[in-house]
Amino acid sequence: MSLAGITLDKLLIIAILAAVLIGPERLPLLAEKLGGLVRGLRDLAGGARERMREEMGPEFDEVDWKKLDPRQYDPRRIVMDALKDDPAPAPPGAFEAAASQAAVATVAGLPSRASGPMRFDDEAT
Q1: Is 120 contained in some domain?
Q2: In whole angstroms, what is the distance from residue 82 CA to residue 103 CA?
Q3: 66, 72 in Cβ contact below 8 A?
Q4: Does residue 111 sit within a domain?
């Protein structure tokens, strides 16, 4: 049994140390508080799940939550998937239109950006 690197023998050692350090008088009280904290966290998570189900409606059950798990993130796989995808072909004539606009802007001495005049910083060097 391993949960995040904590094995059963490590858990047993922690329990024995806690019993010795805390003492038998206070141990039941602390165990009760710990149980209440765990129940409260579980209720909080359940309440959040129910609230999401209310707000999202039927789409909540359709979401593939395992796909959104950050532990599934592998940058190598993402890059390989992106390299495998073929880019969408450009519509016919799109390259020629962009090239002709750039040529006209260059000949006219205008900036090649269509968003307006070229910006610069007065305070730079």
Answers
A1: no
A2: 32
A3: yes
A4: no
